[in-house]
Amino acid sequence: MFFWQGQNMQSITEWHNVDADSFLQQILPLQQPALLRQAVRHWPAVQAALTSDRALRDYIAALDNKAEVNTVLAHPDTGGRLSYNADLSGLNFERQKAPLTAVFDELQRIANQPDALHIAVQSARADACLPQFSRYNAMPLLNAAAVPRIWLGNRIVVPAHFDDAHNLACVVAGQRRFTLFAPEQVANLYPGPLDFTPAGAPVSLVDVMQPDLQRYPKFATALKQAQYAELEPGDVLYIPALWWHHVQSLQPLNMLVNYWWGGSIADDASPVSPFDSLLHSLLTLQKVTPAQRQHWQALFNHWVFHANGDPAAHLPAQVDGKRSLFSGKRKPQLLQWLAKQLQLM
């Protein structure tokens, strides 16, 4: 069964003439996906792409310091969908390294071949390969601490996955189609293994473009709640942290620049993540009985998720005037104790 991407899905809310104030004060507090039409159309990189693929190639080549970047290659039979092999024992693509301009040249060389390899540069830090990119293509909606990352490829499909950081995805060249699912849809998306993933984040096993609803019947519920958008050069998509997003690159040459902030994969955050706690909980609670799971759920809801309000509200104020569940002075000892506990597992 072929699934048309726009069927029974609502369009992501569009915003126009967005500046930093409207993004930070009106859009960000909603914590909902937002399509910011033509928010970076003024970028020289976008203007070059609108001229021609060759003009964009020459623009990138002038900034390229020839540092090698992570590149993935997938066989034509994969349809460009970067995922697992049939039995989930491995991946259906391989990784190599090459300078960005060299990848660009290869994409142009194979652009008209019917059975071309699927090639993609993924999450290449611009400050490492295009060190002057931010100087000429500044992100107008965030502070300068957010690091741009380059995504370049031909027709690539990235399965639905989530990041623990907020994300601004800016299309420079080509077209991209995004399908988004709220975090609450996790049970309907059939995630793959948590300890073996294509690129570090858990991915849905469902082929969003051709879903097997006999094998994954609950995905039909996720589709009813899905949101989608198609982005042109200059468009920007805001993806809130933990929202699942499925991404299709629709042209023989596509380029995107993204910015993460506020999560472990961003440059402004701690390398530790609440996802670490999820993995630890899976290990420690796997043999707990169903009845005990309900009891632990109540404790987590109270202390971790504040289902009953501030769990420290009844405690006396500490020296710093704040009420907390444990003294900040004891944090180093607590970390040492936790490290020992992990060694015992």
From TrEMBL:
<dbReference type="GO" id="GO:0062101">
    <property type="term" value="F:peptidyl-aspartic acid 3-dioxygenase activity"/>
</dbReference>
<dbReference type="InterPro" id="IPR014710">
    <property type="entry name" value="RmlC-like_jellyroll"/>
</dbReference>
<dbReference type="Pfam" id="PF13621">
    <property type="entry name" value="Cupin_8"/>
</dbReference>
<feature type="domain" description="JmjC">
    <location>
        <begin position="119"/>
        <end position="276"/>
    </location>
</feature>
<dbReference type="InterPro" id="IPR041667">
    <property type="entry name" value="Cupin_8"/>
</dbReference>
<dbReference type="InterPro" id="IPR003347">
    <property type="entry name" value="JmjC_dom"/>
</dbReference>
<keyword id="KW-0560">Oxidoreductase</keyword>
<protein>
    <submittedName>
        <fullName>Aspartate beta-hydroxylase</fullName>
        <ecNumber>1.14.11.16</ecNumber>
    </submittedName>
</protein>
